[in-house]
Amino acid sequence: MGFELEARARLSKYFDVFFNYGSADAEIIDGGSAGVTNNSAYNGKKTPFVPVNGYGAGVESSFKINDKLRFNGFLNLDTTGKTYWHESNRSVHTTAAYSLLDARIAISGEKWSFAVYGKNLTDQQYYQEFSPGEYVGSPDDVAWRGRPLTIGTSFSINF
Is residue 100 helix, strand or coil? Predict the structure, then answer.
């Protein structure tokens, strides 16, 4: 069970603010069994890989610079809530909430666009996925870290 809420407001002809929030109460109802493994011990625990909540907030602007050029830009903060990585819900296999800050500015003409962007501007360290080794017979945990600070440019042509 869960819900999402999203709002956007135009503060001026060239400036928007936006916000979103989502919450998920994902719970294991019947873990059942597979062969000799009885997963009913996890009944009532939070479902792994489902963040408890998440929210985002940002600003966006778009306007004509002159008859041939347009400016577009945004700044966005996205937060992913606490995430359980195993059915046991043990704290050692749980990630706390983390936030990622992204930004982009672009100049565009009639058939082209040039942008400069930054993702994870605060260089937040986080896990995209985590698998506790003790539950799969491995001596080590396996984890995939999220992308670090990334700065880039893009250029596109429409024809």
Answer: strand
Rounded Cα distance between 82 and 79, Å, is 10
C-alpha distances (whole Å) from 71 to each of 16, 24, 104, 111, 137 are: 14, 37, 11, 14, 54
Q: Residue ranges of the domains in the chain?
A: 2-157
Contact by Cβ (8 Å): 115, 151: no
Looking up tokens 């909430």 gives: 97
pTM above 0.70, yes or no: yes
**CA 62/CA 14 separation, integer angstroms:** 6
**Contact call for residues 65 and 107 (beta carbons, < 8 A):** yes
Find tokens 């990334």 and name the residue.
150
The predicted structure's pLDDT at residue 33: 78
Q: Please tell me the distance from the alpha carbon of residue 151 to that of residue 103, in angstroms, as a whole number.
A: 10
Q: Over the stretch 75-102, which tens digit does the pLDDT of each residue have?
A: 999 999 999 999 999 999 999 999 999 9
